[in-house]
Design goal:
Blueprint lengths: L8 E6 L8 H6 L4 E8 L3 E2 L3 H10 L3 E7 L7 H12 L8 E4 L9 H19 L3 E6 H7 L9 E4 L17 E8 L8 E6 L1 H7 L14 E5 L2 E9 L2 E5 H8 L3 E4 L4 E4 L2 E2 L3 E4 L2 E5 H8 L3 E5 L4 E5 L1
Parallel strand pairs: 1-2, 2-4, 4-5, 5-6, 6-7, 7-8, 10-19
Antiparallel strand pairs: 1-9, 2-3, 8-9, 10-11, 11-12, 12-17, 13-14, 14-15, 16-17, 18-19
Length: about 300
């Protein structure tokens, strides 16, 4: 398990126990994300769920929802169906969370692990949204095993900078390191979490470009911002024209009569059609942008453009 780091994102988690929340004040206190309790077991619905979800989103805070499970009493599919019905129609940024702890430890390791797998798979099937798992550090070590490691882990371990290791996960996506922090807009103590920046970027920063194909393994960085991904073709780097245009706010169009792409109103001559996408030569793109510098970093497979 990795330790907390300065690059981690400040995230809290809340339920009805936290009362009425002033989400604007929460955001002003530097909180960027929140996991909100939605449901528990077969019938319970947190009465602050929808209020918290809408309030946090309106304040510009990214949201995720969690369900406290009771494998000692219910089937995985029945609890998954309950959670899916509660969150239906409510936008989530982060993966849906299975919260497994407490009396769930009464179930054998093998049966509990399979129960969790069934819940995660069923929720992903019902909601068409990714899922993840929350648990305590000791609970993870003693009660959960593979194949749960394929889902991201949100782990709780208070008073330490590095959570206790286990044999199922080598790293955490979210680390709940305190249950008694104070945050503006919330009365009393609140749980505090560190979220890995890469996890945040994947789910919260939807504007950050992602590779459109496994072959697109070259990063195209424009004015120190990641703009697109590309690939090497015959010794030159090509990148998806529309992805580059969208990142830079530059219009892209296609003239079907001449089969010519346009970038910022200018015809593109150095391009290739790959998998129904138009790829522009990165050097040509830089020249069309009026670049002062175009630099290839072979060690890190990056192209830098400055204009």
């Amino acid at each position: 398990m990795q330790a907390k780091s300065p690059s981690n994102v400040k995230v809290i988690d809340v339920s009805h126990h936290n009362g009425v929340i002033d989400w604007k004040k929460v955001k002003a206190d530097g909180v960027l994300g929140v996991f909100i309790k939605a449901s528990e077991g077969l019938t319970f619905v947190d009465d602050k769920f929808k209020t918290n979800a809408s309030g946090a989103s309106a304040a510009g805070i990214k949201v995720g929802f969690y369900h406290y499970v009771h494998p000692e009493s219910n089937t995985a599919k029945s609890e998954a169906a309950h959670f899916a019905s509660v969150v239906s129609g409510v936008k989530a940024d982060f993966p849906h969370v299975l919260d497994v702890e407490g009396d769930a430890g009464q179930v054998s390791v093998s049966k509990l692990t399979q129960w969790c797998v069934d819940w995660l798979q069923e929720v992903e099937s019902l909601t068409k949204h990714p899922a993840m798992l929350y648990t305590g550090a000791y609970f993870a070590r003693d009660n959960l095993t593979q194949p749960l490691g394929q889902w991201p882990l949100w782990i709780a371990h208070y008073g330490v900078t590095t959570p206790l290791a286990n044999d199922t996960w080598s790293e955490w996506a979210v680390f709940q390191f305190s249950e008694n922090e104070r945050v503006g807009g919330i009365s009393g103590d609140v749980d505090m979490n560190a979220m890995e920046k890469a996890f945040w970027d994947k789910y919260a920063n939807s504007n950050i470009p992602q590779p459109l194909s496994p072959e697109d393994d070259v990063k195209v960085v424009v004015n120190d911002q990641l703009a697109s991904f590309g690939r090497i073709i015959d010794g030159s780097t090509f990148t998806p024209l529309r992805q580059l245009g969208d990142s830079l706010g530059i219009p892209v169009s296609w003239d079907s009569s001449t089969s010519t792409p346009y970038f910022d109103g200018k015809p593109v001559t150095n391009f290739k059609l790959i998998e129904d996408r138009t790829y522009i030569g990165v050097r040509s793109a830089g020249e069309m942008l009026g670049a002062t510098t175009i630099h290839w970093d072979s060690a890190n497979r990056k192209v830098y453009i400055y204009y």
